[in-house]
């Protein structure tokens, strides 16, 4: 297969979209994030796919290039032979390498596709030392070995099915397994144009009963102060620090969607550092067992459910001098939801195995 650059023009999305508006589809926001970058897509020969699979790949390529996303198509052999020269030539323009395989990604012991793997996790899988994965096939071992060699150069490589190319771009969780170099992650504020993505993440966690349903006003408040940990332009984890009466900041909509690589603790550490730099103290409300466990391991004190915190006498002895909690906590309506309240203490840094987690 000959490599080729495929470029097309489409309309630019309107910036600064208000949180509550649906004028722009979230897929258009993703297209905008990928414009100006190159996707390096590696395929086996045409004979490796059914007619339907091959047509699906070509349809997705055509769909994406009509939206001004650069696609560089290469064969698996070309990627093996030309990876260094391609990366040297296109450099930072390559946003992601996409490898298409029939498994649709890397599957764990349960047969489920792992949504994300770090380089260190891949090393454990190849060594047969990862508790969640069985020994890999010869073909997958070859792909993962190639991934390890390329990750430091590009930062993000995805393994997807023949029908998953478009979904890899327009879904915040992607369509297969995204492999990342954790050294190249960056944390930055949510941009106005990314608000539809934030809403999509929020709605997904509400549907999974990990976030509570918020009013539109509340949603805009947490969205305006949200920060995202990214693998290039792909969201990995995030949190908001919501202002309350001094000295309090609320750690809110804290999420880390991938299990086992410590992303929840990574963004939690960032939140604690930011609060300390501002001379503030964190609290969090949650009903999620995983989130409560990680917060307590990170030095937060669990005061119990809000309904039980009737007075200062309810606090542990070492928190009797705690400043008054915000009015929003003291007056919290516990008739439909009674979360635990956790207060930042002075912890030593834990060694977190991490899990998919969320504070509401």
Secondary-structure topology with pairs:
Layout: E1 5-6, H1 26-34, E2 38-43, H2 51-65, E3 70-75, H3 76-90, E4 94-100, E5 116-118, H4 119-126, H5 138-154, E6 156-160, H6 165-170, E7 177-180, E8 186-189, H7 195-207, H8 216-224, E9 226-231, E10 234-243, E11 248-256, H9 263-277, E12 281-286, H10 289-297, E13 300-305, H11 327-330, E14 340-344, E15 357-359
Parallel strand pairs: 2-3, 2-4, 4-6, 5-7, 11-12
Antiparallel strand pairs: 1-3, 6-7, 8-9, 9-10, 10-11, 11-15, 12-14, 13-14
Helix pairs in contact: 3-5, 4-5
Question: How is the main sheet built?
Answer: 8 strands, mixed
Strand/helix succession: EHEHEHEEHHEHEEHHEEEHEHEHEE
Provide the residue-averaged pLDDT. Answer: 83
Percentage of helical residues?
A: 25-40%
Beta-strand level of the residues, as a percent range? Answer: 15-25%
Whole-Å distance between the termini?
A: 49 Å
Work out the helix count: 11
- Sheet/helix structural class: alpha/beta
Number of strands: 15
Radius of gyration using CA atoms only: 22 Å
Shape label: elongated
Oligomer: single chain
Which residue ranges are poorly predicted, with pLDDT under 50 across at least 5 consecutive positions? 1-22, 347-355
């Amino acid at each position: 297969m000959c490599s080729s650059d495929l470029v097309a023009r489409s309309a630019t999305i309107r910036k600064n979209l208000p949180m509550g508006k649906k004028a722009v589809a979230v897929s258009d926001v993703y297209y905008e994030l990928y414009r100006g970058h190159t996707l390096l897509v590696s395929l086996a020969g045409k004979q490796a796919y059914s007619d339907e699979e091959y047509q699906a790949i070509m349809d997705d390529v055509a769909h994406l290039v009509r939206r001004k996303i650069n696609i560089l198509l290469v064969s698996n052999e070309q990627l093996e032979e030309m990876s260094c020269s391609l990366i040297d030539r296109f450099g930072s323009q390559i946003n992601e390498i996409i490898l298409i395989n029939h498994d649709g990604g890397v599957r764990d012991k349960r047969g489920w596709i792992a949504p994300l793997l770090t380089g260190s996790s891949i090393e454990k899988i190849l060594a047969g030392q990862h508790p969640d994965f069985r020994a890999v096939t010869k073909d997958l071992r070859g792909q993962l070995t190639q991934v390890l060699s390329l990750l430091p150069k590009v930062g993000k490589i995805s393994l997807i099915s023949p029908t998953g190319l478009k979904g890899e771009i327009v879904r915040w969780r992607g369509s297969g397994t995204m492999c990342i170099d954790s050294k190249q992650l960056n944390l930055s504020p949510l941009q106005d144009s990314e608000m539809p993505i934030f809403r999509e993440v929020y709605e997904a966690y509400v549907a999974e009963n990990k976030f509570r349903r918020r009013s539109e006003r509340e949603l805009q408040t947490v969205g305006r102060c949200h920060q995202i940990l990214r693998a290039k332009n792909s969201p990995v984890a995030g949190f908001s620090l919501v202002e309350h009466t001094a000295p309090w900041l609320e750690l809110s909509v804290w999420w880390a969607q991938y299990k086992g690589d410590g992303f929840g603790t990574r963004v939690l550490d960032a939140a604690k550092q930011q609060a300390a730099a501002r001379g503030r103290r964190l609290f969090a409300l949650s009903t999620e067992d995983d989130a409560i466990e990680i917060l307590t391991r990170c030095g937060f004190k669990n005061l119990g459910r809000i309904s039980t915190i009737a007075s200062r006498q309810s606090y542990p002895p070492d928190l009797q001098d705690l400043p008054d909690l915000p009015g929003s906590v003291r007056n919290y309506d516990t008739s439909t939801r009674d979360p635990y309240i956790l207060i930042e203490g002075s912890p030593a840094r834990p060694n977190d195995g991490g899990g998919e987690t969320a504070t509401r």
